[in-house]
Amino acid sequence: MQIRNLPTIDAGYWAAIVAASMCGANSGDLAAGPLGLGHVKGVLPLTLVFLAIVWAEKTINWTTVAFYWLAIIVLRTMATNLADLAGHDLKMSYPLIFIVLTALMAGMIWIDKASGTEDSGVVGADGVWRSLPATNWNYWITMLAAGTLGTALGDWIHEKDNLNFGVYWGSLICAVLFIPIMWTSVTFGKLTKPWYWVVIVACRTLGTDLGDLSVTVLRLFTPTRSMGLWISTILTGLLLAGIVYFWKTRKFERLQPAE
After folding, report:
1. Number of domains, the chain
2. 1-40 confidence digits (pLDDT tens)
3. 253, part of any domain
4. Where are any strands of DSSP class E within 41-109?
């Protein structure tokens, strides 16, 4: 995607990523369940929608981060279905899923580094990156893998047959763990590419449990889980839109071009 259509990495970006993760967790379940696409049939149409978004971003002369966030939602929806396909339908063990997806992400990061891809952006005076990595095909594949890994981790934490913390405790545990992960990634990692992806996985994991928590809570006030899914998907989508639209970037120190 063009640099002009990419958001700046700040607190608002991470809040939006968590909201997108919640929305994608719900929309994935919605597509697989009430919409009847299952965990496989939805992959092709979601892929076509993603490609259409990427094509439109390059073709239409608009300057807006909406393209980026729409692409994120579509990939997050797909990631939910892929994780459920592996963990629920194919009965793969979660440790195996974690190993495979972590290896895939590590391989994509290595390929990106070996290809000499340069990111055009800015870093703060503290050396922390404020710009996204280059959003090429490598970035989107890694984003899909990160979303799938985060979904699997979130399910592993709260599902009955695994750690069995439930959505309430699972959400709290993920929220508590997210703080030191973010602090370490920013303070020591300076949000370089590997650390950026660590935080993305953490956001996806937190978003998975929070998304499932929202459906569980809404289920108390709705007659069916399907209705709870619809309402939660709409509300989390509105939450994402609100964060993206209303967030005002705080005044950082003057940003300098990255070397």
Report:
1. 1
2. 888 899 989 899 999 999 999 999 999 999 999 999 999 9
3. no
4. none
